[in-house]
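Okay, can you check this protein?
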Amino acid sequence: MENQDNGQLSKKEEQKIRKAFKDKDWHEIKSTDSWVIFKVMSEFVEGFEKLAKIGPCVSIFGSARTTEDHPYYKTAELIAAKLVRHGYGVITGGGPGIMEAGNKGARSEGGKSVGLNIFLPFEQDGNLYIDPDKLITFDYFFVRKVMFMRYSQGYIVMPGGFGTLDELFESLTLIQTKKIGRFPIVLVGRSFWEGLIDWIKSSLLESEKNISAEDLDLFTIVENETEAVKVIDDFYAKYLLSPNF
C-alpha cells in the first residue's frame, strides 16, 4: 500500500484521477468496456456454479486486521463452530482476521467453509481454512456482494472497518427496500456497536426521520457466540430456509 503524507495523493492515485478526465476514442471505449463486461460475466458464472448447491449458510463479517490473540477472533471462531453444529455452513470474505476465524471454526467441526476472496493491493490473501472447492477470488466488489446476498441465510457482523460497515448497510438497505428477503443480521459486541446504533436512533430516526422505527428491528445486537447463534436459530424456527433472490 502506498503511503500518503500530509494528505498528498500518490503518483498512482493522481494518474487514476487524471485518466478519468481524459477523452477516450471509440475504439478505446469499446475494447475496454467489452473486456470488463466479459470479466464480470465470468465472475458471476463461477460464483453461481460453485455456490448453487452449498445449502444453508451464514456469513461472518469482520476486520481483516483482527489478530489471532484478540477476543473477537476467538468469538468468531466459536460462532462458526456452533453454527456448523446447528446445521449451517459458513461463508466469509476469505481473508485473514475475523474471516480466517470464521473459516477455522467451520473447519474444526467438519462443516462447509466458503471463502469469497477479493483481489486487493494489501491485506487480503486467502486463508488456509477454506474448502478448496469453495474458494472464489473476485476482482469486483459488487459481484462478490451479490454472492453474499444470494447464498447467505444470515449475517454475523463482528467489529470491523469500512468493508464490514459496507456489507452491513448493503444488507440493511436491500432488506429495507424489499429487494431481497428478510434474513437475520446479528451485530456482535455491544461496546463496539452501541455508539453507531445510538447515532442511527438519534440522527437518522429521531432528528432527521430518514428511517422508520421498524427499521431498527432489522438487526440484533448480542455479546457472545451463544446469543448470536440463538438469533439465527430462533429466526428460522419461524421461517423456511430459502435463497434470498
